[in-house]
Amino acid sequence: MEEKNLAPETEAKETVSKNFIEMEIEKDLADGVYDHVQTRFPPEPNGYLHIGHAKSILLNYGLAQKYGGKFNMRFDDTNPTKEKIEFVESIKADVQWLGADFEDRLFFASNYFDKMYECAVFLIKKGKAFVCDLSAEEIRQYRGDFTTPGKESPYRNRSVEENLKLFTEMKEGKYQDGEKVLRAKIDMASANINMRDPVIYRVAHMSHHNTGDKWCIYPMYDFAHPIEDAIEHITHSICTLEFEDHRPLYDWVVRECEFENPPRQIEFAKLYLTNVVTGKRYIKKLVEDGIVDGWDDPRLVSIAALRRRGYTPESIKMFVDLVGVSKANSSVDYAMLEYCIREDLKLKKSRMMAILDPVKLVIDNYPEDEMEELVVPNNLENEELGSRVVPFGKELYIEREDFMEEPPKKYFRLFPGNEVRLFGAYFVTCTSYEKDEDGRVTVVHCTYDPETKSGSGFTGRKVKGTIHWVAAKTAKEVECRLYENIVDEEKGKLNADGTLNLNPNSLTILPSCFVEPALADVKAYDSFQFMRNGYFCVDCKDSTPEKPVFNRIVSLKSSFRLPK
Ligand code: ATP
Ligand code: MG
After folding, report:
1. Atom 10 in ligand 1: residue holding the nearest Cα
2. 3-state class of 27 per DSSP?
3. Measuring CA to CA, which residue among 543, 528, 549, 545 is closest to residue 482?
4. Which of 110, 256, 272, 480 has a beta carbon 3.0–4.6 Å from 331's, enabling a disulfide?
5. Residue of the CA atom closest to atom 13 of ligand 1
6. Which residues line ligand 1 (CB under 6 A)?
7. DSSP classification of residue 131
């Protein structure tokens, strides 16, 4: 059984063609440009990681693995305004959870400030950088635009000696923020605006979470990043498409700083998902307005949220592999992520009985105090998961929707006079039902046929419907939370005023569900299939031993089909 299920997948993997990054890497190795592969994941510690970052992490880690190379974790913390230590811890945990093993290679870009400063001095000495007194506004004006070439700064031709003196003074705190900057001396007429003497160091009298008040000048991203890569002997610096126009500057920095065997930058398209919210600004507002209960609310797609919802690292990896690597921006349907978690859990998880919307079923001809212990398989498609004991008795809970007073055609579940199979137990025939004043069904009555016990080899007659159940006496009451997407792109993601057009049904809380006793002692992150109702995972924040809380990860069925 297992083999049959695994074989096609393995086959598919082998025939998948190489992505364009792999082809570039193989060419570099063949040409002797590099003799090893070293990649990195360089987040700014300014927020929680999301599914897009997961793609970058698994891509970089996967490439290092594939080519027998190494993968570094590096916090790009050169910007003193935004970094927060709490994010460092959450990011590390997320990367480790995804299985991207950086071993002992955890780095902080701020630890390279001395080396970056040396590089700046080196460029000044080469006549490749100058201190400029223009204001930010003037620099912008001088820069020109796509159609107008830039104008050279009047400070561009300062002598090396003067530049060295002024840059030292910048470092020593002689100047206010914005009073002076260090700029690369490249080409004000370049067609690429990034090459028009970009600013590489600025004065900022700010404390840094790592270096404290040691520095009052900080390197700009486009200068710092290539140096960080070069210091760590990164070979392939993989980033997203918006940096494509910055690549000439990246190359300029590593070349002019004269790094040996410098890294090269390769860009790929960001991963976007439909029907989810990823923008930090929006999530912050959802958290502040109490619409979601934090960055890890199961309706979000931060890695913490996916983990809390019950997604596995394997399912995220499958998703990222299916999406592939491309040079063109596009959005992927959230349903594809759901497909991946279903595929991953299908053979791994036990299929339990849980009643989400309970109504009592009383078997009138079953002995009053008797309880039977029935043995049911945990997963009909995977025998290796074994079996378990499920208690059975006179009073059961069934799903409200599994009974109808007046059934439509092709309804094969319980209705007066109809016989169904109780999964793993007996055939029962509905005899009557009770209603309350509001006309709501409160109890369904039936009789059972002892001859029909599951596993007894009974072949006397067949029934068309099988329903699941939980014995009332031994049931454990739990809370279940069902989710829908928080926004629906077909209905418009944003309102006219730019706020999110929220789906009012994104969360349904079912406070009184019943599960079989085998689920009484669950712990955070345990997950199961609830027969017919979907995959569920124990909530890591709100679940207690007295009242477990289950998040629905995903329902069982979908119209989603894998793209060809
Ligand atoms: P965001 O603003 O959404 O948090 P970011 O690019 O500012 O994204 P960084 O911390 O700077 O986040 O990025 C860390 C790494 O993750 C970078 O290499 C970046 O290119 C990559 N990355 C970020 N978003 C995505 C995405 N949607 N798809 C793939 N890679 C991404
Ligand atoms: Mg960022």
Report:
1. 43
2. helix
3. 549
4. 272
5. 43
6. 42-44, 47, 52-53, 55-56, 239-240, 270-271
7. E
The whole-angstrom separation of Cα 43 and Cα 55 is 13
What is the phi/psi pair of residue 286, to 5°?
A: -60, -40
Q: Residue 155 forms beta bridges with which residues?
A: none
Report the atom number in ligand 1 closest to the C-alpha of 56: 30
Distance 248 CA to ligand 2 centre (A): 21
Quote the pTM value: 0.92
Residue whose structure tokens are 């635009």:
145
CA-closest candidate to residue 350, choices 390, 321, 391, 319: 390
* pLDDT of the chain, 564 residues: tens digit per residue: 333 343 344 444 444 578 999 999 999 999 999 999 999 999 999 889 999 999 999 999 999 999 999 999 999 999 987 667 788 999 999 999 999 999 999 999 999 999 999 999 999 999 999 999 999 999 999 999 999 999 999 999 999 999 999 999 999 999 999 999 999 999 999 999 999 999 999 999 999 989 999 999 999 999 999 999 999 999 999 999 999 999 999 999 999 999 999 999 999 999 999 999 888 888 888 999 999 999 999 999 999 999 999 999 999 999 999 999 999 887 899 999 999 999 999 999 999 999 999 999 999 999 999 999 999 999 999 999 999 999 999 999 999 999 999 999 999 999 999 999 999 999 999 999 999 999 999 999 999 999 999 999 999 999 999 999 999 999 999 999 999 999 988 888 888 888 889 999 999 999 999 999 999 999 999 999 999 999 999 999 999 999 999 999 999 987 767 666
Cβ–Cβ under 8 Å, residues 390 and 514: no
Residues 273, 337: Cα–Cα separation, whole Å:
9
DSSP class of 1: -
Cα–Cα separations (whole angstroms), residue 54 to 182, 306, 315 = 35, 11, 11
Protein residue whose Cα sits closest to atom 25 of ligand 1: 52
* Residue 46 CA, ligand 2 centroid: distance in Å: 7
Q: From the CA of 265, which ligand is nearest? A: 1
